Amino acid sequence: MNWRKLRVFLLTVLALCLIPATRWYQIDEPILRYFRASHDVDPLALHLSGEFVESNLGTEQNSDGSVTVRMIAQQYLFVPHCVLVPAGVPVHLRVTSADAVHSLAFNGTEYNIKVLPGTISASRLQFARPGEYKTMCREFCGAGHYAMRSALKVVPRDQFPALQPGERGTCAAQ
Amino acid sequence: MRRNRRGRFFRRLLWLTGGIVSACSLLFLATVLASDSAPDHVPSYVSWTAETVTAASSGDAFRGMLLARRCDHCHGAEGFSDRASTPNLAGIDKLAVWKQLQDFRSHKRISRVMEPIAGSLSSQDVEDVVAYYAKLPVFTDLQDNRAFPQARPDANHTAVALHLVSFGDGGRGIPPCQACHGPVGYRPGVPSLMTQNSEYLFNQLSAFANRERANDINMAMRTISTLLTEDERHALAEYYGAGLGLQPGSSK
């Protein structure tokens, strides 16, 4: 056994392992899930069945007072285009992509959620103050990328409409 | 001893068959009940998997030419319609027309005229007709196209439409039309609008906005046409209907 060669090999492997470790803060959880090939949904068949069918998009009222928001990011739109949530309540955001890699950023907050096809990006947000937050895609996704914007409307909790279990809220319904 | 063993075998077989049959019926009932309890609106049964794309683009254009003779009366012998309310089909992408015909067949897109016609075609017929219309020529010199353009450009509208087509409206979140409808970018199943009739385009945009037409996957066109004002819908329909999409330079 050539110990010199082995030592060089082991050091190289160690150095290669250190590269992702130094950039760990840049790696999002959805990306790791994507590379682990944990494909939650079929991006081509979102409209046929499953969690992201049309009637399930929008804001859902949970029994513990929090809300769940489901969205689809596609070239070059967020659907639903305007999301309505109550202020000061945990918002469980579940978003997936129908085509390319997108990112969902809320202007004026630190939230920037990477959206990948085949993966559900789940995150827990909370908006303290009512107001309208502009939402935009911050991952270049194609020719219409710069126009891929929508809005998130945060209303005081008493102004948020009472939603039935099967009902989903958007700005249009208000 | 021997008979006893055979009897045990048959008894076991009976139990096994009974078990399988009851499990299958339970499973069937469960699927039926599950499909009953979730009446989700499915916009279209088409999903752009590799198999779908292959099937939609493998038609025989010659057979399609023979079949398409019954489309002549409305869509024109050369794929250009005489009436502005009927779509032109010359040179349109195979996948786009294929999807619309599938949606007419499954009654996901409503049309009193097209639903029975598309229903009378077989899957092979649809592929062939679609392949034929994709092969029909479109000329950049507008004089050479039959019955197109039928609309005249309006100076006030053209500027609005040109901006929406090429840049969209970032403030309202309206993507540029040309990013999906060409020539900058295309997506599967999205038609080119460059030789489309104005009245047809306006009717479709209005139908999307009023939810009378709801066969767009993931609500793309329903969302966009709701964001457009009625004036902008008119402007866009006129822009494409006047052939300005085909000759962007002439709008100046």
What are the key terms here?
heterodimer, A: alpha+beta, Immunoglobulin-like, 2 domains, five-stranded mixed beta sheet, B: 252 residues, mainly alpha, Cytochrome Bc1 Complex, Chain D, domain 2, elongated
Biggest beta-sheet profile of chain A: 5 strands, mixed
CATH level-two architecture of the largest domain in chain A: Sandwich
- Major pleated sheet of chain B: none
Number of helices of chain B: 12
Structure description:
The complex is a heterodimer of chains A (174) and B (252). Chain A has 174 residues and is α+β, with helices and mostly antiparallel strands. Chain A is 16% helix and 33% strand. Chain A contains two helices and ten strands; from the N terminus they run ααββββββββββ. Chain A has helices at residues 3-22, 29-35, and strands at 58-61, 67-74, 77-79, 82-86, 90-97, 102-106, 112-115, 121-126, 131-137, 149-155. In chain A, strand 6 (102-106) and strand 7 form a beta hairpin. The longest helix of chain A is centred in the first third of the chain and has 20 residues, at 3-22. The N and C termini of chain A lie far apart (75 Å). The model of chain A has no long low-confidence stretch (mean pLDDT 87). By secondary structure, chain B is mainly alpha-helical. Chain B folds into two domains: 50-143, Orthogonal Bundle (Cytochrome Bc1 Complex, Chain D, domain 2); 149-251, Orthogonal Bundle (Cytochrome Bc1 Complex, Chain D, domain 2). Chain B is built from twelve helices and no strands. Chain B has helices at 2-37, 50-56, 61-67, 72-75, 94-105, 114-120, 123-135, 155-166, 178-181, 198-209, 220-227, 230-241. The A-B interface holds A 42, 44-49, 53-57, 72, 74-81, 98-99, 142-144, 146-151, 172 and B 40-45, 47-49, 167-171, 173-176, 178-180, 184-185, 187, 217-220, 223-224, 226-227.
Chain-wise SSE layout:
The complex is a heterodimer of chains A (174) and B (252).
Chain A: H1 3-22, H2 29-35, E1 58-61, E2 67-74, E3 77-79, E4 82-86, E5 90-97, E6 102-106, E7 112-115, E8 121-126, E9 131-137, E10 149-155
Parallel strand pairs in A: 2-5, 4-10
Antiparallel strand pairs in A: 1-2, 2-3, 5-8, 6-7, 6-9, 9-10
Chain B: H1 2-37, H2 50-56, H3 61-67, H4 72-75, H5 94-105, H6 114-120, H7 123-135, H8 155-166, H9 178-181, H10 198-209, H11 220-227, H12 230-241
Helix pairs in contact in B: 3-7, 5-6, 5-7, 8-12, 10-11, 10-12
